Amino acid sequence: MEGVDHLAHERNKSEFDVDAMKIVWAGSPHAFDVSDRISKLVASDPGFRKDNRSTLSRKELFKNTLRKAAYAWKTIVDLRLSEEEAAKLRFYVDEPAFTDLHWGMFIPAIKGQGTEEQQQKWLPLAYKMQIIGCYAQTELGHGSNVQGLETTATFDSQTDEFIIHSPTLTSSKWWPGGLGKVATHAIAYARLIVGGREHGVHGFIVQLRSLEDHSPLLGITVGDIGMKFGNGAYNTMDNGVLQFDHVRIPRNQMLMRVSQVTCEGKYKQSDVPRQLVYGTMVYVRQTIVADASCALSRAVCIATRYSAVRRQFGSQNGGPETQVIDYKTQQSRLFPLLASAYAFRFIGEWLKWLYADVTQRLQANDFSTLPEAHACTAGLKSLTTTATADGIEECRKLCGGHGYLCSSGLPELFAVYVPACTYEGDNTVLLLQVRDMSCKVSHEDCFSAGVQAVQQETSRYNSLYDSSRAFNAMSLRCSKSALLEAFEARAARMSVACAQNLSNFDNPEEGFAELSADLVEAAVAHCQLIVVSKFIEKLQQEIPGKGVKQQLEVLCNIYALFLLHKHQGDFLSTGCITPKHAALANDELRSLYSQVRPNAIALVDAFNYTDHYLGSILGCYDGNVYPKLYEAAWKDPLNESVVPDGYHLYIRPLLKQEIRTARL
Ligand SMILES: CCCCCCCCCCCCCCCCCCC/C=C/C(=O)SCCNC(=O)CCNC(=O)[C@H](O)C(C)(C)COP(=O)(O)OP(=O)(O)OC[C@H]1O[C@@H](n2cnc3c(N)ncnc32)[C@H](O)[C@@H]1OP(=O)(O)O
Ligand SMILES: Cc1cc2nc3c(=O)[nH]c(=O)nc-3n(C[C@H](O)[C@H](O)[C@H](O)COP(=O)(O)OP(=O)(O)OC[C@H]3O[C@@H](n4cnc5c(N)ncnc54)[C@H](O)[C@@H]3O)c2cc1C
């Protein structure tokens, strides 16, 4: 039935002000206004249609992405959109493209690592898209180990140039988005060699293609690396391969904020820490954390709406069957993901603030908070993307068979999202970077101060948490401080255990390698503690709107208690809770699921996603799933003819037992 809201009865059940929750989700009334306006603009413009992606060939798909990117740019210019509005437009167009790397990495790399002079020269060209850039760091042989990159940049003082060269097959740049077919320029990372001495990896602005006819410049071999996972999905991006054959660039195209090479061939290091060469990655990791809540909430919105539409079993006297959302098993899989989406929203907000603060300090040459920003962005990027990728797949399963159809939107969402667990740093490798934050008693401390230091730390952490006091309150309702203390104690004790074990090794590096799996678990515990604590902090703010704060409190408790339930081995083995507490936590979770149930549809409506953005028949706002699925099936190219192509060649000879004479 066209125009009927099949989920109206669900919406009527909600106990809070959905419009107020929309503002909380968006971040502010202004952010809501921008997001709402731009999402509707994109949804209503046929130029941004995306429902045909899974049936296009790679070449058609890519050409269509080029058209959309050009159309998006025209829209931005014609409508004079602000930077904020343009970013929202990109978000709602919902298609990875070379422009992401241009705006998201090439420009930030120049801003973060270029001198004033370099910024003045390159940024105006990049802002007007008169040049298009990519970020060429990873090579065929090395991605995680940036210090292991093989591309060289050798200074030639005779000509005042660098010679960029790929000495081996494994030194070929491999993966950079936008490189394959579009970028005219790259920030290429290479080992700097001056006067025969190596100075580590640095960034260089290298022109790749002619600005006249787009052909590769002399010494450049460049192309696309081929099809990737899934139909549509990340195949709209031209991830590329690049080899340099003694390509010459002027000296002033080395990004020189961190260190400089003079025309006489002197290498000078400024006061800026070397790690700033990695600064672009910190920036992008922070945006990836902010984006995780978008991808997860999208999947959760689809699975929640469909779970309210779908009915199986339980019919009484010929009445309707049970909505699958009413099954406790469905709730115990779905509602923690709903809670995680909200938790990640707030951690994303916090990390944005942290990053803005670090940026301000960096501009004033205060580098003191850089290590913390690195550890937090690395750890939280890993935690949120792993949970989001797993969560999207869980949502697909929550939708049963129909979740496997492309028209559910979930297969493509998973395929496009899952590389976030790898790009901008493999998630395990990044968790190992959290060691400074999680393992407060670092291995160096263990060796310098000895076991005594570990013992002192252990007793400090032991006093942090008194399990019987903390969990008494939970028998009735969750106490935020009790929960937080349990997470603090768990993270601290896991770190202390790592430190103690490390102290048993004579060689710290050997100990670190041997215990790395434990260190990763301690890092996860630490990151989960941060997410829980920031959710609780959010609840300490004033949150207007009838019932909004209460809903967020329920979600916060679900997020924390679900983790406590899932990782109860950690909590029990570190003595933070007793088995009785664990059982209480589980009872509390069940009761919280019942509180979410009547509000579930409204809680996903608060994301304010258009049907265009969701791209899912199962998740459409009106819940009119079955007619839409039926209609969509007939539009599949395979149904264009009743008898398929190939019938006469392959099916008929089989049926007629003429297979031996058929031309196969
Ligand atoms: C249409 C028009 C639209 C207009 C507007 C639209 C706007 C659109 C905007 C879109 C935005 C979208 C942006 C998002 C796009 C996302 C696409 C993603 C594409 C993917 C890109 C990539 O993947 S790029 C490559 C990423 N590579 C990696 O991440 C490699 C991972 N490896 C590393 O990071 C490191 O090498 C390492 C940390 C793992 C290595 O560690 P190691 O200890 O060996 O290193 P070092 O010896 O080099 O370092 C020692 C020292 O430094 C510390 N450190 C390491 N990294 C950092 C860092 N990043 N920052 C600060 N400090 C760092 C490290 O901890 C050590 O410290 P010590 O104190 O010495 O211990
Ligand atoms: C879709 C996509 C887009 C990308 N875009 C870009 C781009 O624009 N520009 C760019 O430069 N790069 C890009 N990349 C590359 C990306 O940054 C790297 O793939 C990523 O950093 C992982 O590195 P790797 O491939 O070398 O993995 P590897 O390091 O080879 O990882 C393989 C396995 O080894 C494990 N491992 C590695 N080192 C350790 C260790 N020290 N301890 C324990 N385990 C370890 C990992 O956990 C993983 O399980 C992109 C990648 C993808 C998939």
Architecture overview:
With 664 residues, this protein is α+β, with helices and mostly antiparallel strands. Helix content is 54%, strand content 9%. A hairpin with a 4-residue loop joins β2 (152-156) and β3 (161-165). α17 (480-502) runs antiparallel to α19 (516-539) and α19 packs antiparallel against α20. Flavin-adenine dinucleotide binds at residues 101, 135-138, 143-144, 175-177, 234, 239, 419, 422-423, 425-426, 428-429, 432.
Number of strands: 11
Largest sheet features: 6 strands, mixed
Distance between the ends = 47 Å
Uncertain residue segments = 438-458, 460-476
Bin the strand percentage: 5-15%
Binding site for FAD: 138, 177
Pfam family, one: ACOX
Family: Belongs to the acyl-CoA oxidase family.
Main location: other
Question: Topology of this structure?
Answer:
Layout: H1 8-12, H2 18-26, H3 29-43, H4 58-78, H5 83-93, H6 98-113, H7 116-127, E1 133-136, E2 152-156, E3 161-165, E4 173-174, E5 185-194, E6 197-207, E7 220-224, E8 240-244, E9 247-250, E10 259-261, E11 267-269, H8 279-309, H9 328-363, H10 370-398, H11 410-417, H12 427-432, H13 435-438, H14 443-449, H15 451-464, H16 467-472, H17 480-502, H18 508-514, H19 516-539, H20 548-566, H21 568-573, H22 579-596, H23 600-605, H24 611-614, H25 625-634, H26 647-655
Parallel strand pairs: 1-5, 2-5
Antiparallel strand pairs: 2-3, 3-9, 4-8, 5-6, 7-8, 10-11
